[in-house]
UniProtKB/TrEMBL annotation:
This is SnoaL-like domain-containing protein. InterPro entries: NTF2-like_dom_sf, SnoaL-like. Gene3D superfamilies: 3.10.450.50. The lineage of its organism: Bacteria, Bacillati, Actinomycetota, Actinomycetes, Geodermatophilales. It comes from Geodermatophilus nigrescens. Residues 17-112 form the SnoaL-like domain.
Amino acid sequence: MTTADHLDPVDAYGAAWLATDAAERLSLLERAWAPDGVYCDPLAHVTGRQALSDHIAGTQEQLAGGRVEVTSRPVRHHDSALFHWRITDAAGTTVLTGLDVVQVDDEGRIRRLTGFFDDAPAPS
C-alpha cells in the first residue's frame, strides 16, 4: 500500500500538483481521480488520469519552479466539494488564485472537477 492509498482524494489530487515525478503523480491520481474523470478550467479540458497527469506536467514546466497548491480544506456535501488553491511563481509570489468544485463517484474519487480563476485570463 502506498502513501497515496491513505490520502483523502482532494489531498491526493493536491499532492499530484506538487509531484514532479511522473510515476508518483500518476499514483496519486489513481487514488484521487476516477479513470474517466474530467478536468475543466478556463484554459483546459482533459479526460482521464494520464491526460490530467500530462496537463499537470505541462503546467509545472510553464511555471518553471512555481507551484499549484490547495490552500483550504474541502467543504463537502452529498457527492460534491469545493476548495481553494493558488499558483505561486518560483519566488513564492502568488500569481493566481481560484477555487475548484468537484463531484465524486461512488468510490469517493473525483469524477469531475470544474476550476474557476479569481482573475481569469481572457480565453484564446
